Amino acid sequence: MGEVVVPAFGSFVHDRASSGRLIVQPRLGFSSPARMRAALQRVKAADATTVGTLTLDSYTRVNDDDSAQRALAGGLDLNGFPLVVHGAQITRSVLAGITDEQFPVQVRHGSAQPQRIVRTLLEAGIDATEGGPVSYCLPYSAVRLSRAVEAWSECCSMLAVGPDDARTGHLESFAGCMLGQLCPPSLLVALGILEGLFAREHGVSSMSLSFAQQTNPTQDLEGLLALRALAAEHLPDVDLHFVVYTFMGVFPRTVTGARALTRECVDLAVRGGAQRMIVKTVAESARIPTVQENVDALEYAATCARSAQFDQERSSPEDSEVYDEARTLVEAVLGLAPTVRGAILEAFRRGFLDVPYCLHADNAGRTRSFLEPDGRIRWLDTGGLPLARPARRESSVSSREFLEMLAFCQRLYDPTEDGILAGHA
Amino acid sequence: MAITRTLPGAGEIDVVLSGVSSDSHTWNLSFLQLLLEEQGLTVLNLGPCVGADEVQLAAEEVRPQLVVLSSVNGHGALDAPAYAKALAGSPATSGVPLVIGGKLDVLGSSDPSDYASLIELGFDQVFVGAHAIDDFHRYLDRRFALSEAS
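The joint structure predicted for all components is written out below.
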C-alpha cells in the first residue's frame, strides 16, 4: 500500500522540458476546499502540460486569520484559498488523489511575512512556493524591507529542509514581475539574480527565476536571455529553471487582444528557453476568472506552444544592453556587503536598486522610466543606480503620458471596433 | 516620487495624498502625484495600505491645504468614513478639506450623488465616474486659485 509519490517540483519541470513540453500554469484559488479540489481536477484534465496552483487569499497574505475565519463562517467567497486557516490536514485532503507523478502543485501568495504559510504548505506535503524578500514586499506591502528580509530568511531555511525526506523545497522568485509594468528589464533581471542568491544563501537548492512579458518582444527576449546567462554565472550549482509570466499590467479587454498577447508570451518562452509559463485569461481586465476561462487559457497556450514558429534562440545574450546593465547592477550590489542579505538592504538604502513608480517606503523613488513608440522600456532617470545617466530629452513624465504608458498593451492589442469585449458574462 | 516616513515640516506640503487601508493598488496614487505636481503643488504621498490614524497624524504634522484619498479596489466607500472621523476628531486637522475619488464600491457607481453620505460625514467632494479627473482639476483650480497663479 504505497503512498503516491509526488515528484520534486524542479525535477518534474525538467522532465517535461526534456520532452519538449512547455508547462503552462494558472493562478487559481477558492475558499471552499471542495471547489478548490474541483478546480485542480479540471486543470489536471486540461489538454495541456500543467501544474496546479493554490493561490492564497488577501487576508491570508497579511496574516489576518480573523477576517479569513469570519468570511468562511459567513459563507463568503474569498479571493483565494485560505491555506493557514484551513490547515495542513484539510489541504492534504484537497490534494489527495490529485497530486501525483503527473501533477504537482505550487502555492502562490504575495505575502511579505509568510512564515505560517510556508510552514503549513510544507506540513501539507507541498514543496513549491513563490516570492522573495524584495518581490513580495515592495510591490504590494507596507511591511518594511528589513522585516521582509528577516521573514524570508526564515522561510528559505524551512524550504531548505523541505516537506519530507525525499524532497527539498522549491522557491520561484517573483522579481521578474515587481509592479508588472514600466520597469526596465535590466533591473528585473538583476533583482531575480539577487533573490536567487539570497535563497541559496539561506539553503534553498531548487529554484526558478521569472521574467514577466512587457511591451516589446525583442527587448523581452533580450531580458530572458540575459537572466539565463547571469544565472549560469551566479547560480551554477542549484537546480534551476525559468518561468515567464503573461503580461501582468493593464490587460487587453477583448478576446482577440488577450489571445494575441498570450501567443506572444508563448513565443517568448519558447525562444527564450523558459520551461514554464503562467497564463492570464480573457477575463483578466474585468474580474477573477472562472475555472473554465482558466482551462481555456491553458489549452490556448498549449496550442500556441505546439505550433510555435520559433526554436530556442541561439544568439549570444552578452552583447545586449539589458545583459550589460543587469550585470553591472548585480556586481555593484554584491560589492556592498559580505552577505547577499546585507547587500540587498544596503542597495535599497542607497538607491542602487530603485524600482520606477514603486511607492514603498524603502524604495528611493528617484528612478523614472518611459516607453518608446515601439514599446521598449527606457530609463528616463536612473536616480542613484550605478548606471550611466541616460541622455534624456526631458526629466519627467506627465500624468497623461503615464496613463498612456499603462494602457500600452490595450491600445496595441485590442482591435478598435470589432473585438468582442471579454469577461463580461 | 516616494513615500517619506520622515515627515516634512509644517507649511512645506500643499497636499497629503494617500491610499486607504484595504487597498494595495499604487498606479492611481502615482498618477495623482504626477497630476498634482504638474499643477505646481507639493505632495506628500503616503502610498497604499494607510490607516485613518496614520493619515491624521501626517496631516497634523505637515498641515496641508488638502487631503486626497484614492481607492480603486471597490472598498473605498466602506473605508472612507474612518478617515473623515479621524481628521474631524482633532482640532489640528478638523479644518483641513478632505476629498476622495476612484472606484469606491464593487458595483462601480459612477455618479457622485450616490455618495451623499460621505459628504454628510465631512468629505468636501467625491470624484467618481468618467469625469472624475476633469472634476478634480476644477476642484484644485478653485481650492488653490490655480488659474490666477502666474
